[in-house]
Design a protein that fits this description.
Blueprint: H1 2-18, E1 20-29, E2 39-45, E3 55-57, E4 59-61, E5 64-66, E6 69-73, E7 77-81, E8 88-92, E9 99-104, E10 109-113, E11 118-124, E12 131-137, E13 141-144, E14 150-155, E15 158-166, E16 172-178, E17 183-184, E18 188-191
Parallel strand pairs: 1-17, 1-18, 3-7, 6-12
Antiparallel strand pairs: 1-14, 2-13, 2-15, 4-5, 7-10, 8-9, 8-11, 11-12, 15-16
Length: 218
């Protein structure tokens, strides 16, 4: 048994030593310089492997979801605490796994475990100004782009499908090969020039009442 444990430790250490720091840049077409939009980059190993699930939180605060965008490995659990002194009703109609957490008050929290990869658009059934996106990804290699469009990932040597995502553009994907040496990756372009912000429906697929848009009444 001790020998098996020792071998497992050596394998883990070898894989860690083979990890390389890769960095790259995202260029945004059609994004005003004054606009900061969460942008996610993630790498899916083409040689297989299971992502490491975790526990995350998306808070309801000041009639907003914090963070606005959350990217997580598949199998992870997300808590939705209500930090407002009012009721909220978190829901998503996104396939393949719509959900509705129902109405709950301040200091309460409800959880969802996301078992299927996908893009989940999350809203509040009471407050139409509340919106967020949860990316459930088949990988643990996930990072967020900084204000300058730069990102960095630590990846073991191998082949990957690298994807850049923002809610204002179609995702852009390239295939990369990572070696044991640190390397810079080709620039990825996200075209946000055709983005149009649209109103969403409530959990019944209907328009929100006009009173829902009055901040004095909510």
């Amino acid at each position: 048994m001790k020998r098996i444990v020792a071998l497992l430790i050596l394998v883990f250490m070898s894989n860690s030593l083979l990890a390389a720091a890769v960095s790259g840049h995202i260029r945004f077409n059609g994004r005003p310089a004054s606009v900061m939009v969460p942008t996610i980059v993630y790498a899916e190993p083409l040689q297989g492997g299971r992502p490491e699930a975790g526990r995350f939180k998306m808070t309801q605060k000041n009639k907003s979801f914090v963070p606005h965008v959350l990217a997580i490995p598949v199998g992870s659990t997300v808590a939705f605490p209500n930090d407002d002194a009012i009721f909220h009703n978190v829901f998503s109609l996104s396939r393949p796994a719509p959900f509705d957490l129902g109405l709950y008050r301040e200091k309460e929290s409800k959880n969802i475990t996301f078992t299927t990869p996908g893009t989940y658009h999350v809203f509040c059934n009471i407050h139409p100004q509340m919106s967020s996106t949860i990316l459930v990804l088949p990988t643990s290699y996930i990072t967020e782009v900084d204000r300058a469009g730069n990102y960095r990932l630590n990846l073991p040597a191998g082949r990957y499908k690298l994807t850049a995502w923002s809610e204002r553009a179609e995702s852009s994907t390239v295939e990369i090969m990572v070696t044991a040496d640190a390397s810079d990756l080709p620039e990825i372009v996200l075209d946000e020039s055709k983005f149009v912000d649209t109103l969403h429906k409530n959990k019944f697929g209907q328009d929100y009442p006009k009173s829902a848009y009055d901040p004095k009444k909510n």
